[in-house]
Amino acid sequence: MSTENIAAPRSPYLSHRKRNRFNIEKWGWIYMRASGVLLVVLIFGHLFYNLIFPGSVSVLDWAFVAGKFADPFWIVWDVLLLWLALIHGANGMRTLINDYAHGRFRSVLLVALAAATIVLLVLGTLVLTTFDPCLGETDNAELIARCAAQ
């Protein structure tokens, strides 16, 4: 058996047009790994700050959340958490749809997934970035001092 006619595994067999095409599956795979690592850090930081740091879950109320969102650091943290988690989940759903749905039904599901993802990203980002901690009444002295300084 001769192997003279078998091309090398990475030989330039494909045309130039196909080699330079954007590979969404490759970039989706890379995104899932990178976002997964970042999400572990973001989620455990979120859980630590909201559950361990205050000392008790009963402390979590509107004043706690308002005090947290008075600091731009936590707004950026939660927006990043929202975007990474939602796109990570949508990418996983896209993979499942591609594996199990076929034809026109697959296209409808992918469009519905994209629409739901975009709507949730926009609404979640608007809630996090337009939240005004000084609108409500509270007896939290730290929050009252921050709002008075504005």
TrEMBL record:
Which residue ranges run through the membrane?
Answer: 27-49, 69-87, 108-131
The keyword Secreted appears for this protein: no
Name of the protein: Succinate dehydrogenase
Q: Which organism is it from?
A: Protaetiibacter intestinalis
Keyword Nuclease among UniProt keywords: no
Keywords recorded for this protein, A-Z: Heme, Iron, Membrane, Metal-binding, Transmembrane, Transmembrane helix
- Compartments where found: Membrane
**Which one of the record's GO molecular function terms can you name?**
metal ion binding
This protein's major location comes to membrane
- GO CC terms: membrane
Mention any Pfam family matching this sequence.
Sdh_cyt
